[in-house]
Amino acid sequence: MVTLELTQMAHGGPAMGRHQGKVFFVPYALPGETVVVEVETSKKGWARARLTEVIESSPERIAPACPHFGPNACGGCQWQHIRYPAQLAYKTDVVSDQLARLGGLIEAKVSPTRAVGQPWGYRNHVQLHVSPNGLGYVAADGQRVEAITICPIMHPLIAELFEELDIEIEHLDGLSLRAGAGTDQQLVIFETTDDEPFELMVDRPVSCVMMLQDGTPVTLAGNDHLFERVKGHEYRVSAGSFFQVNTAGAEVLVDAVVDCLSPRPHETLLDLYCGVGLFSLALSTLVAQVIAVETHPAAVTDARFNVEAAGLDNVRILQDDVASVLSDFDEVAHAAIVDPPRSGCGPGVMRQLASLRPNRLIYVACDPATLARDAKALTGAGYHLVQVQPYDLFPQTYHVECVALFVRDALA
Which of 169, 205, 248, 384 is exposed most, by the fewest CB atoms within 10 A? Predict the structure, then answer.
């Protein structure tokens, strides 16, 4: 057992402290607390430890709202034990720390994290797994599934569907529930290796899809998609397509990108990792042309549908790998948006994009560590990081969304 004084929050959610020259990471603890921990993993310069006792508690510590929260239970949330204003402050600190340590951007201008919508009931998409005791989330230890009866971060449309579920789980591998918060539409997605169709017992029409092992969707009832509405635009989102899990957050991101980018009527805009076209549609009326790139087939189909349904003739959707498109790109790109997956763009894509010399670049990041690494590559290729605005699209978790503005240096 080791007694520690914890000093700050680390990326990934644990609190951090030092003991005998070694950095300790302690999940479910808080900066300012004195704790007793048991070492679980020990390396040369760091250790991961399990919290066993809080000797001196932080004033930011509260009782969690969910009965499934905790180190021996559900892993869906990591910060329900923290007052919400403190969650926002810790996320700001983590973003600044990652930019400094991984990106070498010690003086990066990081604004305070902004709350978005409500801190509960915001998730419009949940992925549930099967356990002997029912459906649930991967447990905090990552080794099993914690069956749940409620989930306070589910959007009410999702919680309603979850409460009504009556299905046989014998051949079920997983289950996703999706909702259009702006349209009230609901979609159930069965994940299975068995070709036998499932039957969902709900006393009202609900769209159901079965996703086969190869990713092929089979419509069981209703549609294989739903529609979501954001900032006056309607987006079709198929069962296999990505969309922001916080609809209020999607609206805020659109506003943030427009404000930071300051699009001009004569410009050509690159929208990389465009998904179903969230930013492409929103910015299409503000620029001359949008060239959007996405590799996922279902998302490309959705994006093209959304562009056509909106009656837009200045948005071109390319189905290809971003690196491949950039390597052969021979048009002028005045500005660019990148919204990559959690793994980020990578230094190669950043250098390729920089070689096109867009004047302004918006990076929408769901992981501050990958933002920092990609920012390092971008600043090394002649760009200056003007500002970073974190948004809390994932309350009660350590995750944070950032909108970063880069501009090309005059001599680059």
Answer: 205
